[in-house]
Amino acid sequence: MFTRLMRKLHLSAKNCAAAALCSTFIVATCCSFAYATPSTVTICDGDNTPITVKTSDTSVGKVLAKQGISLNEGDETNVALNDTVSNNSVIQINRAIPVRVTINGVTNEYSTTKKLVSDVLADVGVEASDDEVTPRMTDVIEAGDEIIVNQEESQIVTVSERISYQTEEVENVNLAPGQRVVTREGSDGEREITYKIYYQDGAEISRERIGEIVLAEPVNEIVEYSPQEEFEVGKIPASRPTNYSRVETFTATAYDASYEDNGPWAGVTSTGMPMGYGVIAVDPTVIPYGTKMYIESADGKYIYGYAIAGDCGGAIKGKRVDLFYWSKAQCNEFGRRAVNIYFLD
C-alpha cells in the first residue's frame, strides 16, 4: 500500500511540471504579440504625393501589396522587394516612361526611369556629343518624347584599282618612213586603296583616302617610230604622225573657191592665206588661226592629211570645220562626216 501511494505522488508531480511549462509558453507568446510595434514607412511613388503608413509587415513587397501598389516593367525601387523594412523606412519608386530614340533615321523604343536627355542616352547605351542631339542634353523628357541623334557613321573599305600603263615612244632612224614597231608590250599594274567612308542618314557624304599598297607595278609599252616627215600643208603623210598633243572629234563639211561657196570673198581667206588644199575654215575661238593639224575621218577610212587653220565661215561655229577642195565634185563626194583632228606639237 505504501508503494501505490508513492506512485500516485510521483505522477502528480510530473503533471504539475508539465502544466507549469505550458503556462510559461503561453504567457511568453502572448507577451510577444502584445509587444510587436508597427513600423512607420513612407512610400514615394514617382511624381505622386508621398504617403506614410503604419504596418506590421516586414518586407518591402508586402508593404507595397497591402497598399495596392504594383510595379511595371522597367520601374525601379531604391530597395529590393524582399528587403526588410524598419521603422521610418522610405520606399522610393521610380516609374519608367516610354521614349523613342532615333539614331541616323532608325528609331527604337525604350522604357527608362531617367529624366534628363543625357541620362536617357547613357541608360540605353548611346554615346553622342551635344551638337548631335535634339533636344539638348540638359533638357527633361516626358513620356512619349523622341530624342534624335544625327551622327556621322564611318566604314573602312579597301578596293582594288588598276594602274594603267603608259606608252613610251622612241625614235629609230633605221625604220622606214611612217613605220612604228612595238618592242615591248605594256601591262597594267594593281594597287589596293583603303578609304574611310562617312555616312549620314545612310548616304555617303565624303570619303578619305587613308592607305595605299601597290600590289604590282605597271610595265610601260615601248614603241619605236621612224623620224617624222616634215609638216607641209596639204600633204598626206605615209602614216599618222605621233607628235600630237591631243585628238578631238569635229564635224566636217567641204568648200571650194567658188563664188557660190564664198560670195564676194571668193578666192580669199579671212587671214590672207591663199586658198588651197589643206587650208581649212575654223571657229577661231575654238581653233586659233595658224594651228597645225592632221585630219582623218573618225572611222579611219578617209585621210585629209596635214592642214592649217587659215579661214572662217558664217556657219562654222563650235566643233565644226570646213575642209578646202579644188572642185565642187570633191566637196560633194566628201559631204559631211565626223573627223578626228590631231593637234600637232
What would you say this structure looks like, in words?
- This protein is α+β, with helices and mostly antiparallel strands and 345 residues long.
- It folds into 4 domains: 39-94, Ubiquitin-like (UB roll) (Roll); 97-151, Ubiquitin-like (UB roll) (Roll); 155-225, Resuscitation-promoting factor rpfb fold, CATH 2.20.230; 244-344, Barwin-like endoglucanases.
- Helix content is 17%, strand content 39%.
- It has 5 helices and 20 strands.
- It has helices at residues 2-34, 60-66, 117-123, 259-262, 328-334, and strands at residues 39-45, 51-55, 76-77, 89-94, 97-103, 106-112, 133-134, 146-149, 153-163, 167-171, 180-184, 189-200, 203-216, 221-225, 244-255, 279-281, 292-297, 303-311, 320-324, 337-344.
- The chain has a 6-stranded mixed beta barrel with strand order 15-19-16-18-17-20. Strands 2-1-4-3 form a 4-stranded mixed β-sheet, with helices on one face. The protein has a 4-stranded mixed β-sheet with strand order 6-5-8-7, with helices on one face.
- A hairpin with a 2-residue loop joins strand 12 and strand 13.
- The longest helix is centred in the N-terminal third of the chain and has 33 residues, at 2-34.
- It is elongated and about 130 Å long.
- It starts with a helix and ends with a strand.
What descriptors fit this protein?
345 residues; alpha+beta; Ubiquitin-like (UB roll); 4 domains; 6-stranded mixed barrel; 5 helices; 20 strands; 17% helix; elongated; Resuscitation_pf_RpfB; 3D domain-containing protein
